[in-house]
Design a protein that fits this description.
By secondary structure, the protein is of the alpha/beta class. It is built from 11 helices and 13 strands. The strands form 4 sheets. Strands 3-2-1-4-5-6-11 form a 7-stranded parallel beta sheet, with helices on both faces. It has a two-stranded parallel sheet with strand order 7-10. A two-stranded parallel sheet has the order 8-13. The longest helix has 21 residues. The chain is globular, with a radius of gyration of 19 Å. The N and C termini lie far apart (40 Å). Bound molecules: nicotinamide-adenine-dinucleotide and UDP-4-deoxy-4-formamido-beta-L-arabinopyranose. Nicotinamide-adenine-dinucleotide binds next to helix 1, helix 5 and strand 5.
């Protein structure tokens, strides 16, 4: 394999994947417009692995700029992370989401084709399962999609299935991530809690740092053992390793294949809070709040396909996720 292009590679999942790929000796090129990340991530990735990825600050929907990246490098595979991902914002500004996420994948696929690049790994989401019954297997019929963000992921998947049928020599791997949390063990990279995410871990970190007064637990009356909602939290470093397995799979196989990247184990919001407090030896100010609109009670992955076909399995537990999240969070607010 020559070079791997990571679109959105300075973002949360992209930066951890860059670290994993560089550690395995792969040559990494990153293209990111820094709309939701910082250029300092490149320095930090270099500090962790002793190798610096090539970096292009470009909007990947700009075809001319993206072509330049392919012209100046020898890219044999793309992992396409670049997308807007804030669910609430996608409800307020659907066109922004459709324009960026759909234009983004189309531009990348067109430029790849023009350059004879045949391997593509896509960041999809467990959100495409909607309100289907758990555990979600890759064969579970996709459920009712709750928001425009989720619909962009579903549409991108459909684009890939159509393109795979038309290009039998190519390989398209769709990865449906569950709930990534945690940070690299170095505490040099992680999900930046200052970016105003609605996700639970950035809010746990903000509450622990005293920046947010209280953490709201959205819903205590779900039909789950403790009444709070259940999710399949996955350590970001396990998720990053999953991308390496997907790349290897794409090298050896053609067609379009979907894999869940989760742990197969659900944890409730209250369990996550308990773990965070215990492993970090702190107490959070918590309030019980009504359910958040659009949330499902429970989601977790069936993981056997990824284990069997990719030879990949998540190794780290929620204690590890909570410990590394706060180690990183403390660094951010030092
Ligand atoms: P992130 O926002 O941290 O990273 C995405 C990166 O893409 C950012 O650095 C942003 O600047 C960049 N970007 C966005 N639009 C761009 C464009 N037009 N041109 C160039 N760069 C652009 O998000 P993340 O959590 O790392 O997510 C990565 C991918 O995984 C996304 O596609 C997201 O939808 C998907 N995903 C994320 C989660 C999650 O919980 N974090 C779950 C499932 C799927
Ligand atoms: C987890 C649980 C909340 C914040 C979202 C996207 C999904 C995917 C991953 C990209 C829920 C509860 C949260 C808080 C809380 N992203 N919660 N207090 O909703 O499972 O998935 O991120 O693809 O598409 O929808 O993740 O972290 O927002 O919430 O109680 O302050 O934590 O209600 O039960 P979610 P999340």
């Amino acid at each position: 394999m020559s070079q791997v292009l990571l679109t959105g590679g300075t973002g949360y999942i992209g930066s951890h994947t860059a670290v994993e790929l560089l550690k395995q000796g792969l040559d990494v090129v990153i293209a990111d417009d820094l709309s939701n990340s910082s250029a300092s991530v490149i320095d930090r990735v270099e500090m962790i692995c002793g190798k610096r990825p090539a970096f292009y600050e470009i909007d990947i929907t700009d075809k001319k700029e993206l072509k330049r990246v392919f012209d100046e490098n020898d890219i044999s595979a793309v992992i396409h992370f670049a997308a807007k991902k804030a669910v609430g914002e996608s409800v307020r500004l659907p066109l922004k989401y459709y324009r960026n996420n759909i234009d983004g994948i189309l531009t990348v696929l067109e430029v790849m084709k023009e350059h004879g690049c045949r391997r593509f790994v896509f960041s999809s989401s467990a959100t495409v399962y909607g309100d289907s019954p758990v555990p979600f297997t890759e064969g579970t019929p996709l459920g009712k999609l709750a928001n425009p963000y989720g619909r962009t992921k579903y549409m991108c998947e459909e684009i890939l299935r159509d393109e795979a049928a038309a290009e039998p020599e190519c390989s398209f791997v769709i990865l449906r991530y569950f709930n990534p949390i945690g940070a690299d063990a170095s505490a040099l990279i992680g999900e930046d809690p200052r970016r105003g995410s609605a996700n639970i871990m950035p809010n746990l970190v903000l509450t622990a740092a005293g920046i947010k007064e209280k953490l709201s637990v959205f819903g205590t009356d779900y039909p789950t053992p403790d009444g709070s909602a259940v999710r399949d939290y996955i350590h970001i470093s396990d998720l990053a390793e999953g991308h390496l397995a997907a790349l290897r799979y794409a090298e050896e196989n053609r067609g379009c294949e979907v894999f869940n990247l989760g742990t197969g184990r659900g944890s409730s919001v209250l369990e996550l809070i308990e773990s965070f407090e215990r492993v970090n030896d702190l107490k959070l100010n918590v309030e019980y709040a009504p359910r958040r609109e659009g949330d499902v009670p429970e989601m977790y992955a069936a993981t056997d396909k990824a284990e069997r076909v990719l030879g990949w399995k998540a190794k780290r537990g929620i204690d590890d996720m909570c410990r590394s999240s706060w180690l990183w969070g403390r660094e951010v607010f030092k």
